[in-house]
From TrEMBL:
Identification of the protein by name: Putative metal-dependent enzyme (Double-stranded beta helix superfamily)
Record bears the keyword Iron: yes
PANTHER family in the cross-refs: CYSTEINE DIOXYGENASE (PTHR12918), CYSTEINE DIOXYGENASE TYPE 1 (PTHR12918:SF1)
Higher taxonomy: Bacteria, Bacillati, Actinomycetota, Actinomycetes, Streptosporangiales
Species: Nonomuraea soli
Positions of crosslink type 3'-(S-cysteinyl)-tyrosine (Cys-Tyr): 95-155
A Pfam family annotated for this UniProt entry: CDO_I
Length: 175
């Protein structure tokens, strides 16, 4: 599904055009993730890519707003109220993300078969952008700031078809 009507959001048409060019280049998944992250870093939109109502988030859990999806990639805004976060999970595809507000505290894990091992932590603050590709993308994220967090995620999958970028949720002990 190509959500053309959403291209009127400030900065979105630029992101879609740039990501299309990058994904058409035929790079590896990891190289694509890093190239998309570099492009996102140079073209990170402002908070006005979402309406004020969308930026408020939801009381129950973090909320994802698909902004654009087509064969090969999707652009999703994620809104996190203070303290909201994800379960431990990995992804269907490569991903690049940029933080617009809040603080996305990310914990990285390695799957050891019968348990997980924490292998790193990062605080992703406004203006920071990163990219990754499976394998090695097992993580959890929580907004540790006292303000609502907003981030832009670009996935190498059509979330309008898959329903989510999450491949697997990990319910293993962390040792």
């Amino acid at each position: 599904m190509n959500m053309v009507a959403t291209l009127t959001r400030p900065g979105l048409a630029t992101l879609v055009d740039g990501v299309r060019r990058i994904t058409a280049a035929g790079r590896s998944k990891r190289e694509t993730a890093f190239a998309v992250a570099d492009f996102l870093r140079a073209h990170l939109p402002g908070l006005d890519i979402l309406t004020e109502q969308e930026r408020a988030g939801k009381a129950e859990t973090y909320h994802s707003f698909p902004l654009h999806a087509e064969t090969g990639f999707s652009i999703v805004a994620v809104v996190w109220r203070p303290g909201q976060g994800t379960v431990i999970h990995d992804h269907l595809s490569w991903c690049a993300f940029g933080v617009l507000s809040g603080n996305e505290h990310e914990t990285l894990y390695r799957d050891m078969g019968d348990h997980l091992v924490e292998i790193g932590r990062a605080d992703n603050r406004p203006g920071e952008v990163s990219g990754f590709a499976p394998p090695g993308d097992i993580h959890s994220v929580i907004n540790t700031n006292d303000e609502v967090g907003v981030s832009i995620h670009i996935y190498g999958a059509d979330v309008s078809r898959t329903g989510s970028s999450v491949r697997r949720v990990y319910d293993l002990p962390v040792l």
